[in-house]
Amino acid sequence: MNDARPPRQAQRTLPAQKRIALIAHDGKKSEMLEWAERWQETLQKHRLVGTGTTAGRLKSQLGLEVEGLMSGPLGGDQQIGARIAEQTLDILVFFWDPFAPQPHDPDVKALLRLAALWNVPVACNAASADFLLSSPYLSASYDLSIPDANAWANARI
Ligand SMILES: O=C(CO)COP(=O)(O)O
């Protein structure tokens, strides 16, 4: 079995104003809207991005400013994952549906893998999202460890 891991860790600092991704599967969209309405004042202080339909609902129903990417099944999860790998996303709030199989399940899995790999804070439901948004780290800069991408590449060249 190939158990290659990044040989070293590097540091990354999340800014005080966070870049937050908001995603919900169809069966969880109403839960996401209820949750976002409760946290609207807090969310407005940060930069929001979402997959197409989730972002559209948050904009039209709550008036939140959210950058809309592709809809999930059309590649939106992958776009969010790319931002994680490029270190331009700080928090992931993803209400994925534990009851409904998704046609783009490999994309969902890939996104969750990248979030775990890059040490990005993730909430998968309303309670965990409450804890994330009430954290003192939300509005302060925060240092975290990430894989050292240069050391990884150099060890393999
Ligand atoms: O499918 C999704 C995430 O996997 C969400 O996509 P939408 O926000 O476009 O519904």
From TrEMBL:
InterPro entries: Methylgl_synth, Methylglyoxal_synth_AS, MGS-like_dom, MGS-like_dom_sf. Its EC number is 4.2.3.3. The keyword Transferase does not apply. Pfam families: MGS. CDD domains: MGS. Keywords: Lyase. One of its GO terms (molecular function) is methylglyoxal synthase activity. Transmembrane segments: none annotated. It catalyses: dihydroxyacetone phosphate = methylglyoxal + phosphate. SMART domains: MGS (SM00851). It is an enzyme of class 4 (lyase). PANTHER family: METHYLGLYOXAL SYNTHASE. Belongs to the methylglyoxal synthase family. Catalyzes the formation of methylglyoxal from dihydroxyacetone phosphate. This is Methylglyoxal synthase. It comes from Halomonas dongshanensis. The lineage of its organism: Bacteria, Pseudomonadati, Pseudomonadota, Gammaproteobacteria, Oceanospirillales. The gene is mgsA.
